[in-house]
Specification:
heterodimer, A: 488 residues, mainly alpha, 20 helices, 4 strands, 75% helix, 2% strand, B: 137 residues, Helix Hairpins, 5 helices, 0% strand
């Protein structure tokens, strides 16, 4: 494997950028320049980096002296390892693109300066590390950093409701963080290892899981539910989305889904011989899909509605992964990539509406098509994209999800996917009608808001959705090959 | 398992359960924050318990081992096998140190949020704070 020195840059560089913009807080011009330069670099680094691994401090695999160390495998990694392959490249490319869009929108807002942009970069570094890390403790550390950064992004709204949402998120984050770390501690106690590849091999070599290791699986699964925003933590997550600035919510939902993917793959790799884990994942995923879609249908505020739709879609991703076949896991990961794009468009549209009308309450809005026909058109296209209508991207992933459910012997889950698509379509098309088509409104749009940046971003994103929809194998094949190679 | 480890795991269990009780059942926002912190402390104690070895050598500060040493030429060094058998496992302590730093940062953010909510609603009762928010809506 190629030992690439560029791999850690994907984590280190955003952290350096965060320190710099934080240091320049209130100096708007300096923040803008650093943010723009950093944005260019963070987009380029994943594209320029060759596939391979990075061994921190150069520690190569070393003999473990099983007779003395009591380890179950003959050689182990002695340091932290980051792995970079095709799947990581796709995830990081998308992550950096959406992050840069959010940074660009943030630096155009006069009220938000260095600290806010710093938190965006810290969250980027955290998710990058979570995607790259092959070390369980490193993984845990960055989930904790991500929790603080995401809470800070919501706190920046400076409304009491956002403070409440962030406080709840932090409290539950503390519980889930403790749960993950306790699970890691128990695994360390039983197997003496933290590297995921080594842990996976040691668990396979050790035969049936011991009760302590089973407790560790349960504890880490609790953390997985929280980090992914799945039932019963869906309320906490949707609260975060609805109380954040909508553009930031686009980033938060993307981060949550990518953490869901990274953590699910890590869990399935380590505990591949433990089928109950997949059943548990599937169960919680189904609950999340049902609750997310039902709650989404009931909302009368665009931000709340999108928050619950995002949660329901996360359930769909988890469902694919929980089915546990290479085909379904690949379909789930593919759906995560497609869904974050469509949801990002919808949240950016919500951001534009909030900026123009100062509200996202659907009953107060109307006749938006006269003010912003392009935004209305893109919202409509994003609605059909997220609902799985061809030729857009989600059609390709939802089709694969249905096929994989049938192949795995659960045709009823295929029906659930179709029902969720219908529910998502109904919920968002209702919002579309009330914002853009409904006659009679008592709120005037702010004529100063042109939303050029918003419009550019949503056009780019919808083109990306269409491109993936037309050429799905460009994204799907590397995912499938990676999943098969990992043996999850 | 050593008596110290049994004691550490029991104490950790008590800390985690107390922390969970405080987070779920207590109405005072500061008690919730303290409870959340107790959970982290309990987990740290589990890690310390795992790394404990009675009379174990501390690899980072002892000088009884060198990778290329031969005991006959360096009489104060231990052979690799001997050293490895006596050394304690230092990785859990490194994890505890990192977790303390993470815990301090999350604690500070939660306390800062508590201060903001207190200034807004003049109460530390979570129920009253949430009622105040509902009235604002």
């Amino acid at each position: 494997m190629f030992n690439s020195t560029l791999i850690p840059l994907m984590v280190v560089f955003p952290l350096i950028a965060a320190v710099l913009v934080n240091f320049m807080h209130q100096k708007n011009m300096s923040v803008k320049i650093i943010a723009i330069v950093s944005s260019i670099v963070v987009i380029l680094v994943p594209l320029m980096t060759l596939y391979g691994v990075h061994l921190f401090s150069g520690h190569i695999r070393t003999e473990s002296f099983p007779g003395i160390s009591k380890l179950l495998i003959p050689d182990v990694y002695m340091g932290i390892v980051y792995s970079y392959g095709a799947l990581q490249k796709i995830l990081l490319a998308l992550l950096t693109v959406v992050t840069v869009f959010v940074v660009m929108l943030s630096i155009t807002r006069k009220l938000i300066s260095g600290v806010y942009v710093a938190m965006i970069f810290i969250s980027l570094a955290s998710v990058s590390a979570i995607i790259l890390a092959d070390d369980f403790f490193n993984f845990f550390v960055f989930t904790e950093v991500l929790t603080v950064a995401q809470a800070a992004l919501v706190i920046a709204v400076k409304e009491t409701k956002s403070h409440k949402a962030a406080f709840k998120y932090m409290i539950f984050g503390n519980i889930s963080g403790g749960s993950i770390l306790l699970g890691i501690a128990l695994l360390l106690g039983v197997y003496g290892l933290l590297n995921m590849t080594d842990l996976s091999n040691a668990i396979k070599a050790g035969g049936a899981l011991q009760p302590v290791a089973l407790t560790a699986v349960a504890l880490i699964t609790v953390g997985w539910l929280y980090e992914s925003g799945l039932f019963p933590f869906h309320i906490v997550k949707s609260n975060m989305y609805e109380n954040a600035i909508p553009e930031t919510a686009a980033l938060l939902q993307l981060q949550s889904k990518f953490v869901l993917v990274a953590m699910s793959i890590a869990l399935l790799r380590i505990f591949s011989g433990y089928p109950l884990l997949k059943s548990v994942m599937l169960g919680f995923a189904i609950f999340t899909v049902v609750i997310g879609s039902v709650m989404g249908l009931q909302q009368t505020d665009l931000r709340k509605l999108l928050s619950f739709v995002a949660v329901g879609q996360a359930g769909l991703v988890a469902m694919g992964i929980g089915l546990g076949t290479p085909f379904s896991i690949s379909a789930g990961v593919f759906h995560a990539i497609n869904d974050v794009l469509s949801m990002a468009i919808l949240f950016f549209v919500a951001g534009f509406i909030l900026e123009s009308y100062k509200t996202t309450k659907l009953d107060q809005l109307g006749e938006g098509l006269k003010k912003a026909p392009l935004v209305g058109l893109i919202m409509f296209l994003a609605t059909i994209a997220i609902s799985g209508v061809p030729p857009f991207n989600s059609y390709q992933s939802e089709l694969r999800l249905i096929q994989s459910a049938v192949q795995a012997g659960y045709p009823e889950l295929g029906i659930l996917v179709i029902l969720l698509s219908v529910a998502t379509f109904v919920a968002i098309i209702k919002a579309f009608y009330m914002i853009f088509l409904k006659p009679g409104t008592n709120i005037e749009a702010d004529p100063k808001v042109r939303g050029t940046m918003h419009k550019t971003i949503i056009v780019i994103l919808i083109v990306m959705c269409l491109f993936i929809g037309l050429f799905p194998n460009l994204i799907y094949d590397p995912i499938y090959n990676t999943i098969v190679a990992l043996g999850v | 398992m050593e008596p110290f480890q049994v004691g550490a795991f029991l104490t950790a269990g008590i800390l985690v359960i107390t922390g969970l009780w405080a987070v779920i059942m207590m109405d005072n926002i500061l008690k919730k924050v303290i409870g959340a912190n107790l959970i982290g402390d309990g987990v740290n104690l589990v890690l310390i318990g795992i790394g404990y070895r009675p009379g174990g050598l501390v690899p980072e500060v002892t000088h009884q081992f060198h990778a290329t040493a031969v005991p006959s030429s360096f009489s104060h060094f231990l052979a690799f096998n001997e050293f490895a058998n006596q050394a304690s496992y230092s990785l859990p302590f490194a994890l505890v140190l990192t977790n303390i730093v993470i815990g301090a940062s999350t604690l500070s953010v939660m306390l800062a949020l508590s201060v903001v909510l207190y200034h807004k609603y003049h109460t530390l009762s979570v129920q009253k704070i949430f009622e105040g928010m509902e009235e604002e809506d």
